[in-house]
Amino acid sequence: MTINLAFQRWEIDSAASLAPLFGRSCQRGIYIIEFANGERYVGKTIHMPTRFRTHAHGSKHHPAWPDIAAVQFAQVREEPLDPLEQETIRAQIHAGYELRNRTFNLGSQTPAPLDYEFSVEEQHHWIQRTGNRDSFDFSAVQLPQRFRRTKVEKVANRRAFEAILTDLAFALTEIVPLAPETELKYWTLSDLPSTNSNSRYCALNTGVIESLVLLKPDRRGEHIRNEFEDGFGYINTFTDVLDFQQHSSDVVKYTDSSFPVVLMHHEYNLVETVGVYYPLGKLADIMRAEPELLEAARAFAIENMRHRNGGLFRRFHSKALTNKVYRQIKVGQ
Known about the structure:
Layout: E1 8-10, H1 19-22, E2 29-35, E3 40-45, H2 48-57, E4 68-75, H3 81-94, H4 113-117, H5 120-128, H6 158-175, H7 179-182, E5 187-191, E6 200-206, E7 209-215, H8 222-225, E8 232-237, E9 251-254, E10 261-267, E11 272-279, H9 283-289, H10 291-307, H11 319-332
Antiparallel strand pairs: 1-4, 2-3, 2-4, 5-6, 6-7, 7-8, 8-11, 9-10, 10-11
Helix pairs in contact: 5-10, 6-11, 9-10
């Protein structure tokens, strides 16, 4: 949806009231709050004076903002607000403004709930593989005495299932930080997701975007099918990985590896990514051979976990499959 929003602008501080400015006029619309340091915040509301007061004084979503310098508001009488808010956020980002929004703004530096459990400094150490919290003692993880059979075991042969567990074990020890502590809150594991369930074995979701997807063979076109006859996975990264942006094609075969690796452009509503496709069971091999890829995968997971919690996929989380991955990790330790 694209309509021309007519913004009015007032230079006011956090102590001001917007009620006198609006009177009985329409208070439903899109707003932009400007801050003294040049940052901005974009939002939607059905009652602008109340929303402004909430931002100024703080709420459960963020602390008080005492540094408000101006506010812009555009009336929207009938049109849906969500797409207009998203378009305005994109326009502000494109114009070069630093936003305090987290929604529709992957990579925002606004404090996130994850930061209070796994500090920003620790996040940087995790991504760069430095510091003291690179490993988690999975021996303390409590597992059931009896393990339920997972959905994926019903369709994957034994060799494929072992490869699936191998990839997931690496992801939960080397890509997702503090996996047992952040499980369900910031990441989930879907066993045969309903989306395109005929082709997927499982998906590891960080925040609201899939980080790792493991698939059956023969499902991604000839350029993929010819490379991965026994099944494959892909790990999502940001688009600057391995100089992908230098290539004009949406599909790039990466040849500096002892086994097939294909880089493919993906587009989600929130972000564009590069999917790194590899043979099923070989995630650890490619990440250890290419440390840049491991850092990119960690950065992608952390940004997703900071951006949103795991609520979107929580009801699809497979504790049965997660427990089998934890068991695989404990045996390896």
